[in-house]
Write a structure and sequence with these properties.
Blueprint (H helix, E strand, L loop, with lengths): L10 H30 L1 E3 L6 E3 L6 H24 L7 H28 L15 H9 L1 H24 L4
Antiparallel strand pairs: 1-2
């Protein structure tokens, strides 16, 4: 084990995580409206006199995934913001934790939204059993940083929580 002193998460980092979590929840709201309008095939907001026909890709599964991804990832960042006081990491480890959290949550969400827009899955280069194309391949490649980042984020979170737990007196 290293003798480098550990600290708890700074107030600024916690605020930045919460801010980004709120941004993802706001994005979830926007994605929910797009999903709603895609299902209807038009923008209609009764009792307002709005009835605009739109052409939005209407894969309900993909829009649901994008909407729920934004909610889930936003809540995860908010939970880490509140739970940061229970983590003991070095400043460098907190830096890796913070950036891996942002890369993971935002890119997982934006990838899911891009899949809904382009009608792809982004699960395999070349499409695999799903629709192939440039959009699919770009989404697949952009999906690798969050796949790696989520492991760094969760590994460091567990390490920080374990250190705090070990240092906490018995109840």
């Amino acid at each position: 084990m290293s003798n480098t002193p550990t600290i708890t998460m700074s107030e600024r980092m916690r605020a930045a995580l919460f801010f980004n979590g709120t941004g993802l929840i706001a994005l979830a709201l926007l994605l929910g409206w797009v999903w709603f309008f895609a299902l209807l095939g038009k923008i209609v907001l009764w009792p307002l006199p709005i009835d605009i026909v739109v052409s939005i890709p209407d894969d309900g599964r993909a829009w649901r995934m994008a909407h729920m991804e934004a909610i889930t990832q936003g809540l995860l960042l908010m939970a880490f913001a509140f739970g940061g006081r229970y983590m003991q990491l070095t400043p460098r480890q907190f830096t890796f934790f913070f950036w891996s959290a942002l890369v993971s949550t935002w890119l997982f969400t934006l990838g899911a939204a891009a899949n809904a827009v382009f009608g792809t899955r982004g699960l395999a280069f070349g499409g695999g059993p799903f629709k192939a194309g440039l959009a699919n391949d770009v989404i697949y490649l952009v999906g690798w940083p969050p796949v790696l980042g989520v492991h760094v984020m969760l590994g460091l979170a567990l390490l920080g929580l374990w250190r705090h737990f070990r240092a906490t007196p018995n109840w």
